[in-house]
Amino acid sequence: MTPADLSLTVLHAVRRAVDDGALRVDVPPVVKVERARPGGVGDYASNVALTLARSAGRSALDVAGILEERLRGTPGLRDVAVTGPGFLNFTLRSDAGGDLVRAVREAGDAYGSGTALAGVTVRFADLTESRALLVTETVVRLLRSQGADATLRGHRADDGGVPADERIPAHPGANELPLRGADPTPRNERMPALPGSNEPAPRDADADAADPAPRDERIHVHPGPYQPGLLGVDAARWALLRAAPQDRPLDGGPLLVQHERNPLFRVRYAHSRVRRLIANAAQLGFGPAYDTPVDAPELLGALGDHPVVLLAAARHRAPDRVARHLEVTADALLAFQHTVLPLGDEKPSAAHRSRLALAEAAGTVLAGGLSVLGISAPERI
User: Fold this and answer.
1) 20 to 30 Å CA-CA from 150: which of 66, 87, 246, 296?
2) What's the half-sphere exposure (Cβ side, CA atoms, 13 Å) at 381?
3) Residue-wise pLDDT tens digits, 25-47
């Protein structure tokens, strides 16, 4: 069971409680589920009972108890407990890792996409400042991945007929959006105007009068130059996206150093390691197959959190959350990788196949997350 599955499971429990009259509340569009914090129990937790208590006219503990009754025996859940003022805590089955790995392998790079924001329409103002445009373009991609109808003012949703030099440079698979506009940066370092800057393009007064649409949204972004000519596309994008939008962008120089202190290098290197592990395993005569439980809580937790992180990044207009999560995933994978292949005279076993399947799933998550940011996931470094 993935966090997204768990969120839907809790939401269905709320609906059942409302349908049978146990609760008199409006069913929320989504239920937030997150990793259990220090002091909590189990793997995941939700504060849904606390958020519904006032409208239900009951205590949060009462609401939590009603939901807990309807969650007992749910496939994939080993235990449901109520703690504190009314938090629901969930412990997954020991073999839940298999469900997670299979979900990642089935979805591929699209793992983490969903429909939580279906029906939400977001329009961003046209921009010209480089970092504001890049951040907003990435947020649009995140919103669309969660089902929202998101666009940048003045930009089409496809690339048809748009010259290549009028789009933000991004690697294949990044699903880049066509962008236009002027930028004072030299042409070989120019990134087409991005929405969200403080320099909106001139508007047609007559067109505005005929279009009473709501005011366009803007993301507060600390400006910064986009420098693919100096840093390359990957480092240039990471430098602007890894820091929170309102913070100063990162110094690009350290991002060019192939060293473990460089987080961009760690993330891309971790992906390349997965590709080598799969190739080496093939030479030893086995491939990925999750047959037995794998004791890798940090890596499984990172993969399970990926859909939650993408949704939160979309809602909070914060692509830096994706970058930070990729670092967590990469670090967990690099710590785990040494257990994947047989050592010495050891023969490949079901445990090795399962570990390889988990590593492959981690590589898929890394590639998908990098793609959302418009950054390449190399086969080799």
Assistant:
1) 246
2) 19
3) 999 988 988 888 776 788 889 99
